[in-house]
Amino acid sequence: MSQRAVTPSELISRESSGSPGRFRLHPERASFYSSRLGLGHTGPDIAFDCFRPLSGLDATDREGRRPITYLTARRFAAALAGFRGLTVVTTPELLPFVPPENGVLLTNDLPRNSYYSVLEAAHALGLFERLETHISSTAKVATSAVIFQDVFVSDHAEIEAGAVLYPNTYIGPGVSVKPNAVIGGDGFEATSGDGRHIVPRVGGVWLAEGARVGSCTCIDKGVVGDFTEVGSHTFLDNLVHFGHCARAGRFCSIIAGAGIHGSATLEDGVWVGPSAQVNQNIRVGAHSYIGTGAVVTRDIEAYSLAYGSPAKPWARVCECRNKLSFEADQAACDICGKEYVFRNGRVQRR
């Protein structure tokens, strides 16, 4: 079985935010996987249609999806409260902590490992959608670039020598990919114990219009149908690592040696200095300036100048990155003239 290819415009139409929607999974019942993978099965035999960790279940409930998840310890069982119609991968010892309205796949291995085994099986069976293959006649592609199937290259994009574009990579109009960049690799999520291996990804990478990717930069694809996103006219310098499911908004600049790690979010106009690191799941507010070598371990509010390890906000900055001086909760940039107010504990443009 092979799921159909989807166009970029169809993916965009699935979200109101302008970001691409997820690749969809063809639903199959839990028993379909239990017989193939040697897993036990009890409870309702639910045809699940997406993969989510416990922390992502709220979103699937709002979307009306039927996810598969996993339970690794009793202390996490409270996250299952109130949910019905899940498929939960867990051990026989933890079975009593799964509400009875949910199906269960039972394993004697670590539940996380078996969850990823189900994901790998769905991927191998072609149950996920894939991106339409297309290379525009106006794109410039070096002869030594490697472009796999299921890659979409838009008008006037430029792919330089030695660049590698893995499946489910979208290259928007006018995007520039410099030599030896690797886009859409599987990243570094690994199983545990004997037989340890890297988990294959079934998401993608989305480079919006006018984005630039520097030499030897690596951008990992999303994990379970979702996208790693680089916003329009955002520039990644050489030797940047951009992790799975991370997102940069529009007009960001990420300088050489920086790391933007898994599921981190940079809002519009963020500047990340050389060798700075933004940890996983962190959000950096719009137009913030992250100093050289900073290690960002907590969310940063918009218009902040932050540096150090761990990084702390030390000042407020304009969109042009000039420091602001507030008097009576008001400031005007003495370089570009933009005006700001400090209201409800936040800096805002006037």
Question: How would you describe what is shown here?
Answer:
- Helix content is 10%, strand content 29%.
- With 350 residues, the chain is mainly beta.
- The protein has two domains: 25-124, MurE/MurF, N-terminal domain (Udp-n-acetylmuramoylalanyl-d-glutamate--2,6- Diaminopimelate Ligase, Chain: A, domain 1), CATH 3.40.1390.10; 133-323, Hexapeptide repeat proteins (UDP N-Acetylglucosamine Acyltransferase, domain 1).
| Annotated CATH topology of the largest domain | UDP N-Acetylglucosamine Acyltransferase, domain 1
Fraction of helical residues: 10-25%
**CATH architecture label name of the largest domain:** 3 Solenoid
- CATH homologous superfamily caption of the largest domain: Hexapeptide repeat proteins
The spatial strand order of the largest sheet comes to: 11-14-17-20-23-26-29-32-34-35
> Which value, in Å, is the CA radius of gyration?
22 Å
Low-confidence stretches: none
Mean pLDDT: 95
| Class inferred from helices and paired strands | mainly beta
Distance between the termini: 55 Å
**Number of separate strands:** 38
**Overall 3D form:** globular
Instruction: Sketch the major β-sheet.
Output: 10 strands, mixed
Question: How many alpha or pi helices?
Answer: 4
